[in-house]
Amino acid sequence: MSRKLFVLLFVTVPLLVLVLVIVGLMVWPFISYRELAGPRLATTDLQNIRNALDAYKLDCGHFPTTQEGLAALEKSPPQARGWHGPYFRGAIPKDPWGRPYRYQLSRNGRFTVSTLGADNKPGGDGGNADLSVTE
User: Fold this and answer.
1) Domain-embedded: residue 123
2) What top-level branch of life does the organism fall under (predicted)?
3) Which of 1, 49, 81, 128 lies at a 20 to 30 A Cα distance from 27?
């Protein structure tokens, strides 16, 4: 009986290890692709938001204030003369990591829309890199 058990383990364990290695090699490319997909999607979102902000400015003569934020692209702020939105189909997207994009209007009238990447911390590279678009 112990000989059968020994043979069974001698065959089963290496076979199990081989199967796990093959599965790991098949899954690895998908994990790498997911890491790249977030920044690519965020870059596309940021360009779409920039286009919507440009359309808002054409109609209203200025960009939304920081307080009005990106919500001004969906619903007219009280002081937005000439507003012909909504400027975005559907809701303003969240970043690929589920957080709202950050919007800031500077004193000189230029905006920045940004995300802090997967780690939600300033700096980083790869999937953790900060991404932004500025006018």
Assistant:
1) yes
2) Bacteria
3) 128
